[in-house]
Fold this protein.
Amino acid sequence: MKGMLRSIAGLILLLQFPLSLLAADVSPRVRLKDLAVVEGARSNQLVGMGLVVGLQGTGDRGDLVQRMMKNMVDQFGIAIDAGSLKSRNVAVVTVTVDLPPFSRPGQAIDARVSAMGDAKSLEGGVLVQTPLRAANGGVYAAAQGPVLVGGFSAGGQAATVAKNVTTTGRVAGGVLVEREVPAAFTGPGGTLSLLLNRPDFTTARRMAEAINAKFGAVARPDDAGCVEVAIPAAYAAQPSVFIAELEALPVRPDTAARVVVNERTGTVVMGGNVRIGTVAVAHGNLTVQVVEEPQVVQPQPFGQGQTAIVPRTGVAAQEGGGQLITVPQAGTVDELVSALNGVGASPRDMIAILQAIDEAGALHGELVVM
C-alpha cells in the first residue's frame, strides 16, 4: 500500500512539472508547396470502359462483354451475330487515370484497371485501346497495354488459392496524352491564389507573412483556405519562376488540438496542442472467468441406477487495483499518457480514459474515434 502511494505521489509530481517548455510552439517549419497548391494547377480525372483480352478462362460470362465484343468487331468491318461471341478470355473493365497538370500530348502515364463483371482474374491480360474521357465528355487520352496484377489466383474444382486482389491492376506507361488540358494559374491583374490543403486562419496568416517578408507587401489571406498573391513586376514575364520561389519558402503551420483513437487496433495519436483541465482519473480492470466442470456419477455395482452427468460451473471474478491520478489544469495529453504508462495502463485503457475525460468536458480538443 505504501509503495502504491509513493507511485501515485510520483505521478502527481510528474504531472505538476512546469509546462513552460511544453507551451512553446513545436510545429515544424515546412515548405509552402507542402501546405498549399496553386489554383488552376490541378489534376483532372479521366475514365473509360474497355476490354482486357488474353485471359486464361477467367473472363466475363454476361451479355455486356458480348455486346462490347460485337461493337469492336463491327469497327473492323466484320459482321457477326452477338450471340455467337462467347469467350471466357475477355473481361469488361473500367480504366481510370489522374491526368497531371500541364501534361502535353505524347506524354505517357499510368492507368488503373478494374473488372466490371464477374471476371475472376485479369492476370496475363492485355488492355485493348480505350479512349479516356473527362467530365465534359471530351477525349483527352487513350490507354492500351499489358495489365500488371499484384497477385495471383490458382485452383481447381475442390480448392483455390489466391493472393491479393487479381481483378484490379495497372497499365504502366500505357496511357498516351492526346489533348492538352488548359491550365490558367494566373488571374486578372497578374495575381494567383494559393489554396491550403488544410484550411486554417492562422496558417494562412503565417503564409502571407512569410511571402511578404521576402517579396514585399504582395500577399494577403483571403480566408482560411486561400491566400491571394500579386505577382511582383520583376516576375511578370516569368510567373513560373516566382511560383518556384514561393514553394521553397519555409512556413510554420498551425495544427488543431486533436486526439485520434482507433478502438480496433488500440492506436492513440495526439497533437501537441491538446490540453486537459483539472480532472481525477480512476481506472480498474474486472476479469470474470467461467469454467464448466461437469461431474460423472456412477451407480453402485449391480444397482439399478443409471450413469448421470451432474453439471458443475466454477465462476471466479478478479478486479485489478485501481489507481487514482490527479491531472492539474492545463496538463498535456503527453503527461497523462506518461503517467498512465507508469501504472501499466494498456493502449485500450488509455482510449477508454481519454473518452471519459472528453465526456467530462476536461479534454480541450477534438476527440476523433476511428
Observations:
- Residues 7-24+258-369 form one domain.
